[in-house]
Amino acid sequence: MSVSSEPEQAPPWRPEDGPPPAVWTWPPGDRPGLFVRAGGRWRYASVIARHVHDDGRESVQVAVDADGSTTVSVRSYWWPQDGLKAAHASAVEPVTGRGRHASAGMPTAPPR
Prior knowledge:
By secondary structure, the protein is mostly beta strands. It has strands spanning about 20-25, 35-40, 40-50, 60-65, 75-80, 85-90, 95-100. It contains no helices and seven strands. Strands 1, 2, 3, 4, 5, 6 and 7 form a seven-stranded antiparallel sheet that branches. A hairpin with a 2-residue loop joins strand 2 and strand 3 (about 40-50). The protein starts with about 20 loop residues before the first strand and ends in a 14-residue tail after the last strand. Residues about 100-110 have low confidence and may be disordered.
């Protein structure tokens, strides 16, 4: 793989950013994978969710061991950009929702 700079992280969505993004998620057993440039090395990351914002921008939320310590953290990055490379796809289609609860697999509205 080529050498590139570390990717820019995407900040968490806030109400002042406009409507919440559409959130696409995959099941834990069959998530797509990326390589993330972190700490000067390419690190494998499991994609938890893809966020599609109303302005057309996209970000990916990943679980990654960014420093090689075996501590996995969740980070969001703008997609696409240098410092992120596709590793593999998922065999299943993602499900979608809108808002903060969608990425956690919870309903987007409270039960009645």
